[in-house]
Amino acid sequence: MRPPRPPRPLRRGADETFLYHTRHIHGSTEVAPGAAAPAATAPPRPLTQREIVMKLLDRYRTVLFDMHGVLMFGHDRFGPHEDFDRSYRALGGRGLSESEVRRSILASFEGLRADARRPERYDDFLSVPEALKRYGDAPDDEIDRLTLVFALHEVGLVPDACAALLGRLARTHRLGLVTNVWAPKHFWLRELERVGVSDLFTSMVFSSDWRSIKPSSKLFSTALSALDAAPDEVLFVGDSLQHDVEGAKRAGLRTVWVTSEQTRHGSADHVVASALELEHAAA
Predict the structure, then answer these.
(1) How many angstroms separate the Cα of 268 from the Cα of each of 70, 207, 229, 245, 261?
(2) Cα–Cα distance between 164 and 7 in angstroms, integer?
(3) In this structure, are residues 155 and 191 in contact, taking their beta carbons and an 8 Å threshold?
(4) What's 275's DSSP letter?
(5) Which of 132, 164, 171, 206 is the most buried (most CB within 10 A)?
């Protein structure tokens, strides 16, 4: 009897492709020396680009989101044509004139917007009631109602597509919020409940609860503590380069900048045009 023929050397090309696919697609690790390869009825399917490239979200267990401009839109309606008086009247207000309501709301908004640019205010940020008193000169007996007017014009809506995205991500990731809101959080919580996503978040950090605003590391640290997560295990998604991306980066988190700008920045590890692109973004 003739001795068995030694196995032929692996040829680059078809044989190499076969081994690669058995290892990475079918879970097989090796073809035994001298053993015949399984009969194939068709050439092995080449890997798609999506299979070859690791997805960004596959690298992280936890994703933190900003809200405004990322998950919520139509917010910050403080333009010259906003009808603040209508909101005031709908809330039962009668004591102030239309011009008084407008002046108080807009002066408070402009004061807070100026404060948000001052680093010394990042961890000493006024509440809306305080701003109404300091900047809006609001009467004491109208501050609660005007605070609600302010909140109604600051809050936006969460689109169905973003709610669906959160639902899918919650199956595989822990989710959290770290968001700058100036008014008390009630209307934001109500909007999250409206679209059915409020129970998807392990941690929700609203700046108005803490007298701090991003980019303060205090808000990011609060979220990480609640999640019991190390910073480099967490991906943060925000649309403000200064307040979201640079703040999260200084806190040690990986960052995604949501922007339509065709540009890069050292603080942004990744750039997408919309949060809806996250599921398909490459690592």
Answers:
(1) 15, 22, 20, 6, 13
(2) 54
(3) yes
(4) G
(5) 132
